[in-house]
Amino acid sequence: MADVEAPDDSAYYLDQVTITEDLDDDYQYEEVSVDEETIADGDEDLDAAVRVIEEASQDLKAALRREGVPGPAVIERPEVVDDFVRNYLLKMGMRKTLECFQTEWYELQQKGLLKEEDIQTVPDVYSRNQQLDDHVKLLRKELDKFKEAANKAKDMYVKLRKERDFHRMHHKRVVQEKNKLVTDIKRLKKHYASYEPTLRQLKHKYETAMKEKMLSKLERDRAVGQVSGLQATLKNIETGRGEPVFLQGVHSSRELAKAGIGPTQQSLREARNIEGLPGYDPSKDPTRSEFKRHPNDTEFPMDNRVNPYLTSQKTPTGHLTRTGGFRLTNTLHAHQLAISNLALHPRKEILVTTSDDHTWKMWAIPNGDIIMTGEGHEDWVSAADFHPSGTKLATTAGDSTVKVWDFAKTECTVTFAEHTHAAWDCAWHWTGDFLASCSMDNTSKVWDLNSERCRYTLRGHADSVNTITFLYYSNTLCTGSADKTISLWDARTGLCAQTFYGHMHSVNNVTFNLRGDTIASCDSYGVLKLWDVRAIATITSVDLGPHPTNRVAFDPSGQVLAVASNDGTVKMFEVGSGQVSSLTGHEDAVQAVVFDRKGEYLVSGGSDGTVRIWS
């Protein structure tokens, strides 16, 4: 609505008036209940009863009529002429015109110049025209909106059509490139297929060359050792006996070599001859037995050789000197099946692994180049040990055999097959003329490499003999058995010298420290024990369970023990402090551990078929 001109304020005034209420305090009013329709007992008569009934019926009819009355309806009244003009001017934004109109309108109205028909409602045609005009404007706005949406849709359609054409063209190009690549791949496959025979041939040549290289190195080292020994012997002979004895010594050495006697036995006989000692007399041998000796049997050396490691002072291993101990530095995927044991070359950085895949493999470490593979066992290979000279290798297997492999001949030269069950472990005597093995048939055997026969069978264990090892530079053997005992044997007589009791479960492995005064053993429930060889007593016992411990190894200093555990870790036990740490890296049980000769690194092999080097 338009603003209405305010009337003159002088025509109105305000006055305060107080209205007093008449109170009739002297009159006593009686309260009558509105709902009271009964009649007092004294006034009850027929007329009063009829009147009460009629009033009740009238009240009911009035209530019904009140319920039937419809609610007020909203009546739309047409606006008057002046309101119509005001609304129109406001809608058009003509405010100045609106002010002039109102001024003139009220002046005419005050002067009475407006007729009654001039101030009535707007004729219907104008209202209808106004409504139609509003509707037309609304439709025009919607039309503009739809036009804008249609233009946007048209632009989007054009854009999508262009993108469709682009992607269709791109798809055709990709299909063409794909077909071209497929053709090139087929051509390359055909081309490279012709290289496979050449690659196999080159690989075979490379393996052969590496094998010949290592064999040449081994032969060279052996030749250098022999020359050094001969030079020293010649010098001693020339100094002591003169020229005739020199010729006699050389002639004697040649005769012994022709007779098939090994270098250790040659040295023993030459030493006896030079010192004027009597030769070997079978009748005076304290270890002589009543049965007839084989003509090629080797004489056991006298047990008076001094262990050179007794006085050596070894520096602590890298696990103690480096912060954080050993860490994983290299991983070799050696076999498809589990690795059962490891053996390190006595002088070179060469490692042999044995596996459940019936083979053993020789590796150059730490780079992991394969040198050769040994095949010949008919079942899993359980253990391996290098000859003290490094030119031979002994292996044991589940086919009950013990094999000796000659690297110079690149073949198996000797096979011992007298065990009746699987052979578990083997160990060389320090002279290299004897080999000891243990088996599931509850026995251990000492083999003579010169006569190629079993010299002694060690009987005494009540269950499988799981491990065997020689004491350094002696004729003493140590065995561990599933009957929970550890035994020391004299290899010259085949008799048990001492038995250690203390394990509550099957003994899996035993080993000497380099000094030879301590034995470490582990069992199938994860218990590690250290034994004093001289006192025949337990030094310490450590529970590394509940998983079995499979192998144990001393570091060169004898201060740290590495234990292969079935939980996939290598346990590092410090002998002095008793502290235990773990090396984690294998994905399955660890079966074997071995330290290098200097204690700079540790090698482990596991059931995951990998060899891991820690340094």
UniProtKB/TrEMBL annotation:
InterPro entries: WD-F-box_domain-protein, WD40/YVTN_repeat-like_dom_sf, WD40_PAC1, WD40_repeat_CS, WD40_repeat_dom_sf, WD40_rpt. Residues 275-320 are annotated as: Disordered. Keywords: Coiled coil, Repeat, WD repeat. Residues 282-297 have a biased composition (Basic and acidic residues). It comes from the Eukaryota. SUPFAM superfamilies: WD40 repeat-like. Residues 309-320 have a biased composition (Polar residues). Residues 129-163 form a coiled coil. WD repeats lie at residues 332-373, 374-415, 416-457, 458-499, 500-541, 552-583, 583-615. GO terms for cellular component: axonemal central apparatus. SMART domains: WD40. Pfam families: WD40. GO terms for biological process: axoneme assembly. This is SPAG16 protein. The lineage of its organism: Eukaryota, Metazoa, Chordata, Cephalochordata, Leptocardii.
